[in-house]
Amino acid sequence: MRFVIEGGFDHFYLCHCAHCRKDTGSAYAANLFSATATLRWLAGEDKAILYRLPATRHARCFCDNCGSGLPYAMEQMIVVPAGSLDAPFDAVPDAHIFVASKAAWEHDLDRLPAFDAFPS
């Protein structure tokens, strides 16, 4: 999968809604949003599967070969999973959103031990 995002991002949100938690299997999804940037596929667009959750605005795009999250166009904007970018970027998240839905176990996480690799 190879793609290029041409243009800048308007927002970088960490979303804690139940749908994003299910998508990622984690505490939140880290997504970049832009109403002006464009998504251009260089390779692998035919492997991109877009799933729209019925009766919601929620969608997710992923590679049908490896399952990785991929960018997609939705309602006059593009959504880019931050972890899908190969090039380093220096954006800092703008906000946590849908925190009323965050996981019950998500508190004081910065107090946990941190390891540079899988602990032995």
Q: Percent helix among the residues?
A: under 10%
Order of strands side by side in the largest beta sheet?
8-9-3-2-10
How many beta-strand runs?
Answer: 10
Major sheet attributes: 5 strands, mixed
How large is the radius of gyration?
15 Å
Termini separation:
33 Å
Beta-strand residue fraction: 35-45%
User: What low-confidence regions span 5 or more consecutive residues with pLDDT below 50?
Assistant: none
The total count of helices amounts to 1
Listing every helix as H and every strand as E from the N terminus to the C terminus, the arrangement reads: EEHEEEEEEEE
From the helix content, strand content and strand pairing, which structural class follows? mainly beta
